[in-house]
Specification:
The protein has 358 residues and is an alpha/beta fold. The protein has one domain: TIM Barrel (Alpha-Beta Barrel), CATH 3.20.20.70. The chain is built from eleven helices and twelve strands. An eight-stranded parallel barrel has the order 3-4-5-8-9-10-11-12, surrounded by five helices. Strands 1-2 form a two-stranded antiparallel sheet. The radius of gyration is 19 Å and the shape is globular. It starts with 8 loop residues before the first strand and ends in a 28-residue tail after the last helix. The structure holds P-hydroxybenzoic acid (PHB). P-hydroxybenzoic acid binds next to loops.
């Protein structure tokens, strides 16, 4: 039998029963003080048959937040909230990582403590409008002396994630958030050790990864990258050089997986038309497990694994709308249709009430 989505795989010390990963998705339903609610525990536990769940992007400090109603992982109340989530997933036999997040320059100022100015590598204002329809503000470039505190915020979040009972963590290096803002030269115009060459632009990502490995061990740390995504007004003059370097250095650090967003559908939210796929190159640069994301379904996911392009595939909307996605794919059952109006924010409707097969 060939290897496909339904083949088990070892992920560091974990054995996953299949290679279908629930991708991290912001659902904007967090309770007071950025603490996950019991509804989040129900939502994730419903999806515990995934080979791995990667929980939604979660700010590593109050200053790392960008949007209303997203969760945090920097205090004991948040640890307790997340503990109910991990307990519920484990009780159903599942495995769950947490995605560690700092949004950097794209934060809504109104969600930051004391209305702080968002920070980024450089004072480069994102084009376009925030989801609330406002202009972005021009961020403040982080001082060189502040960079260690950013690394410490991730270390602190990683430690709290461990206390909350996660099986591991994913560092969010994608989608135009802080670490990606440092990586790509459209947003990074620094002239110090954190800007300029690809090695300098990758320095913050690599320092954060080392700090998180200190807490978790390399076998429980993954990193997510989105080399070509233009989401959040991102660009790089030479993505192949930038991301091949990052993948090689992450490989040297020995992280357990690299999660690459490379849309295969042109209507995908992260799609950029007319670019050559970069994942095959990154696979050559990275010795660990490669997880691909970007509009896959059962057929294309199986094909990517069978061809050796990927070891695992993460699915966003399909897991959002189908708690029993693994079973549905196994049985070739129809999928529930997504309801766009309940994706961000709201209550149990569109969150925990997508039906399972009888
Ligand atoms: C979002 O809230 O829309 C969002 C969050 C994290 C991502 C991408 C999108 O990586």
């Amino acid at each position: 039998m060939s290897t496909d989505l339904f083949s088990p795989i070892a992920l560091g010390p974990l054995t996953l029963p299949n290679r279908l990963v629930m991708a991290p998705m912001t659902r904007s339903r967090t309770g007071a003080a950025d603490t996950p609610t019991d509804l989040a525990a129900t939502y994730y536990a419903q999806r515990a048959t995934a080979g791995l769940i990667i929980a939604e992007a979660t700010q590593v400090s109050a200053l790392a937040k960008g949007y209303p109603l997203t969760p945090g992982i920097y205090n004991n109340a948040q640890v307790a909230g997340w503990r109910s989530v991990t307990d519920a997933v484990h009780a159903k036999g599942g495995r769950i990582f947490l995605q560690l997040w700092h949004v950097g320059r794209v934060a809504l100022q109104s969600v930051l403590p004391d209305n702080a100015l968002p920070v980024g590598p450089s004072a480069v204002k994102p084009a376009g409008k925030t989801f609330t329809g406002e202009e972005y503000v021009t961020p403040r470039a982080l001082e060189l002396s502040e960079i260690p505190s950013i690394v410490e915020q991730y270390r602190n979040g990683a430690g709290h994630a461990k206390a909350a009972g996660f099986d591991g963590v994913e560092i969010h290096g994608a989608n135009g958030y802080l670490l990606d803002q440092f990586l790509r030269d459209g947003t990074n115009q620094r002239t110090d050790a954190y800007g300029g060459s690809e090695a300098n632009r990758a320095r913050l990502l690599l320092e954060v990864t080392e700090a998180v490995i200190d807490v978790w061990g390399k076998e429980r740390v993954g990193v997510r990258l989105s080399p070509f995504s233009a989401f959040n007004d991102m660009r790089d003059s030479d993505p192949v050089t930038t991301f091949a370097y990052a993948a090689r250095k992450l490989s040297d650090l020995g992280i357990v997986y690299l999660h690459i967003i490379e849309p295969i559908n042109s209507d995908h939210i992260m799609a950029v038309p007319g670019v050559e796929p970069i994942a095959p190159l990154l696979r050559e640069s990275f010795q660990g497990i490669v997880m691909l994301n970007g509009g896959y379904n059962k057929e294309t996911g199986n094909a990517a694994i069978e061809s050796g392009a990927a070891d695992m595939i993460s699915f966003g909307i399909p897991f959002l709308t189908n708690p029993d996605l693994v079973r549905r794919y196994a049985e070739n059952a129809a999928l529930n249709a997504p309801d766009q109006s309940t994706m961000y924010g709201g209550d149990a409707h569109g969150y925990t009430d997508y039906p399972t097969l009888a």
